[in-house]
Every structure is written in C-alpha cells, then in structure tokens.
Structure to design on (78 residues):
C-alpha cells in the first residue's frame, strides 16, 4: 500500500508597498515577488498598496523587502 501524500497548505500573507502609482508599478512588484521561490500568486491593490502573496511556505519579511526594493518600491513598516 502506498501512503497518501497530504496536500501542501498554501500560506497567504499581506504587505503594504508604498510608491506605486500605476499599472507598470503593479507589474514590476508582481514580477519581482513571483520570482521568489515557492510563490504561487501575487495580487496587488494599487489603490491601497496592499500586496497579497500566496506561497507554498512562509516567506521571510527580508525576502519580500528585497524583492519590493528590486522593483523600485518600499515595503511599509508594520
């Protein structure tokens, strides 16, 4: 008998990114965050600056901060 694999639970985290003003900004942040290992989805709300990231494992704040910085924006302090 083969043991059944339990499905991996996704982790969803929300961050606030400052400095985004247009769809190009949204695309830049989305692209950088999507390149992080394990990231399955990124949703950006331009109006509020809220960025929701769904990943296989929890991401470190530092990894997210570096990705957002690479896109040219800043992760707001919690």
């Amino acid at each position: 008998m083969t043991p059944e694999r339990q499905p991996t639970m996704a982790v969803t985290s929300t961050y606030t990114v400052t400095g985004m003003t247009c769809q190009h900004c949204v695309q830049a942040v989305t692209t950088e965050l999507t390149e992080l290992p394990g990231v399955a989805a990124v949703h950006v709300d331009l109006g509020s600056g809220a960025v929701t990231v769904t990943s296989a494992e929890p991401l470190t704040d530092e990894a997210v901060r570096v990705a957002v910085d690479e896109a040219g924006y800043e992760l707001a302090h919690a």
